[in-house]
């Protein structure tokens, strides 16, 4: 027995890459033991935590589990590897590579963890339960627009800190890029303006994906908000592409938040309409509008004396923002007014002109001059008609 122990010790004392074989066995045992423990925690402990968070109404615990998956487990796996190899005498190059790998893993896990926490915070702030379902969907789209910018900033800051911790001097790099950066900034001025306009749209939110907006003389539904351009689908179906810089300086009408639509329309009747019928017209229009669903009557008045009509103005609300519903209701109102006026012998006015002729006085007809009756009756530019006497 002692012989075998002595031989085993001699074998373990054999050196390979400046390390005894015994040290490699210790590394192997440490790796296997550590990986088994982490796997058991991942399989049983984390599974119980997931089952608990699945039944919970609080969404924060789901984010906690996701952060564990993205940050803690990778760090634990790399920590076991790093701690196991510390029992070996490594050459400087390999030791530096191992330290650099550890810094990279920790930096990536920290960036992913902070990213998840920020996105959860934004989602918690923009989509609480007090909002209506459609409002929550719009806020979710808003978070999806902000998230890419947050990721870019986090990864940029994380890479800078990582390079500094790895011993790189970034001041020389920044100084060397100074002149080139100025030239690139001047060359890409338009692109940068569109980029800043994108952040303005995302943060100020004048519109969101799915909103129906009018930009100057163009109207359409927002389909995509990009870093440089925003795309709309017009009513006729074609795609409208606007630079973000243009949208931040243009006048935009957003119809998404409109809950009801105010409608003002006018109609005119002839001057021969009796006073009783004029008094009856507002009441008739009110009864027609109040009998139609999704409408709210406001007023109807004899508004003015027109050039050839007695004008009435009516105001009501359509209790829906859909344009097609508004047009269907207005058409229904127009048909009903037509039928009501026809049954009451009320005539609609149309552009007309009436000429009154005075009766004769003492045998001489006193009336309008020929120019008043017809502009071409006595035109000095035309020859006068010849008069002939008959015998």
Beta-strand residue fraction: 15-25%
Q: What is the H/E order?
A: HEEHHHHHHEEEEHEEHEEHEEH
Measure the end-to-end span. 171 Å
The order of strands across the largest sheet is 6-5-4-3-7
Count of alpha/pi helices: 11
Oligomer: single chain
Proportion of residues in helical segments: 55-70%
Secondary-structure content class: alpha+beta
Low-confidence stretches: 370-391
Q: Average the pLDDT over all residues and give the rounded result.
A: 76
Radius of gyration in whole Å, from Cα? Answer: 42 Å
Name the overall outline: elongated
Total discrete domains: 3
Largest sheet: 5 strands, antiparallel
Overall strand count: 12
Write a brief structural summary.
With 391 residues, the protein is an alpha+beta fold. It contains eleven helices and twelve strands. It has three domains: 2-174, no CATH class; 186-254, SH3 type barrels, CATH 2.30.30.60; 261-343, Alpha-Beta Plaits, CATH 3.30.70.100.
Helices and strands in order:
Blueprint (H helix, E strand, L loop, with lengths): L1 H11 L2 E2 L2 E2 H35 L4 H26 L6 H35 L6 H33 L4 H18 L1 H16 L7 E4 L2 E8 L3 E6 L4 E5 H6 L2 E3 L6 E9 L5 H16 L4 E11 L4 E9 L4 H21 L16 E2 L2 E2 L4 H4 L18
Antiparallel strand pairs: 1-2, 3-4, 3-7, 4-5, 5-6, 8-10, 9-10, 11-12
Helix pairs in contact: 2-3, 3-4, 4-5, 9-10
Overall description:
- With 391 residues, the chain is an alpha+beta fold.
- It folds into three domains: 2-174, no CATH class; 186-254, SH3 type barrels (Roll); 261-343, Alpha-Beta Plaits (2-Layer Sandwich).
- It is built from eleven helices and twelve strands.
- The strands form four sheets. A five-stranded antiparallel sheet has the order 6-5-4-3-7.
- A hairpin with a 3-residue loop joins strand 4 (218-225) and strand 5 (229-234).
- The model is unreliable at 370-391 (pLDDT under 50).
């Amino acid at each position: 027995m002692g012989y075998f122990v002595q031989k085993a010790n001699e074998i373990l004392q054999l050196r390979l890459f400046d390390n005894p074989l015994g040290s490699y066995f210790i590394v192997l045992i440490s790796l296997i033991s550590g990986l088994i423990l982490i796997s058991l925690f991942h399989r049983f402990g984390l599974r119980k935590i997931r089952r608990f968070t699945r039944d919970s109404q609080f969404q924060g615990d789901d984010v906690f589990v996701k952060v564990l998956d993205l940050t803690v487990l990778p760090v634990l796996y790399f920590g076991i590897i790093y701690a196991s190899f510390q029992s070996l005498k490594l050459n400087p190059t390999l030791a530096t590579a191992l330290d650099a790998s550890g810094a990279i893993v920790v930096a990536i896990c920290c960036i992913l963890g902070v990213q998840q926490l920020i996105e959860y915070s934004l989602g918690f702030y923009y989509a609480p339960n007090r909002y209506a379902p459609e409002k929550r969907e719009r806020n979710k789209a808003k978070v999806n627009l902000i998230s890419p910018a947050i990721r870019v900033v986090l990864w940029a800051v994380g890479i800078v800190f990582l390079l500094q911790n790895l011993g790189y001097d970034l001041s020389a790099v920044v100084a060397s890029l100074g002149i080139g950066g100025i030239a690139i900034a001047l060359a890409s001025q338009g692109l940068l303006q569109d980029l800043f306009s994108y952040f303005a749209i995302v943060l100020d939110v004048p519109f969101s994906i799915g909103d129906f907006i009018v930009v100057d003389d163009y109207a359409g539904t927002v389909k995509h908000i990009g870093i440089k351009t925003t795309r709309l689908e017009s009513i006729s179906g074609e795609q409208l592409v606007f630079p973000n810089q243009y949208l931040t300086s243009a006048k935009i009408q957003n119809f998404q938040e409109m809950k009801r639509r105010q409608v003002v329309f006018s109609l005119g009747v002839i001057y021969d309409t009796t006073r009783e019928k004029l008094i009856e017209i507002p009441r008739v229009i009110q009864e027609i509008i109040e009998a139609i669903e999704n409408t709210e009557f406001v007023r109807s008045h004899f508004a003015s004396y027109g050039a050839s009509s007695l004008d009435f103005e009516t105001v009501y609300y359509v209790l829906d923002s859909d344009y097609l519903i508004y047009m269907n209701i207005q058409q229904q109102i127009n048909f009903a007014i037509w039928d009501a006026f026809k049954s009451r012998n009320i005539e609609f006015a149309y552009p007309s002109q009436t000429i009154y002729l005075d009766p004769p006085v003492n045998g001489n007809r006193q009336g309008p001059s020929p120019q008043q009756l017809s502009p071409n009756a006595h035109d000095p530019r035309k020859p006068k008609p010849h008069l002939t006497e008959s015998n």
